[in-house]
Amino acid sequence: MPATATPTVLTARALLLDMDGTLVNSDAVVERIWRRWAGRHGLDGDEVMKVVHGRQGHASMAVLLPDRPMEQNLDDNARMLAEETADTDGVVQIPGAGAFLAALDGVPHALVTSADVALSTARMNAAGLPLPAVRITAESVGASKPDPEGFLKGAAELGVGPADCVVFEDSGAGIAAGRSAGMTVVGVGPRAAFHDPDVVVRDLTQVAVETTADGVIRLRVG
Question: Catalytic residue positions?
Answer without folding.
Answer: 18, 20
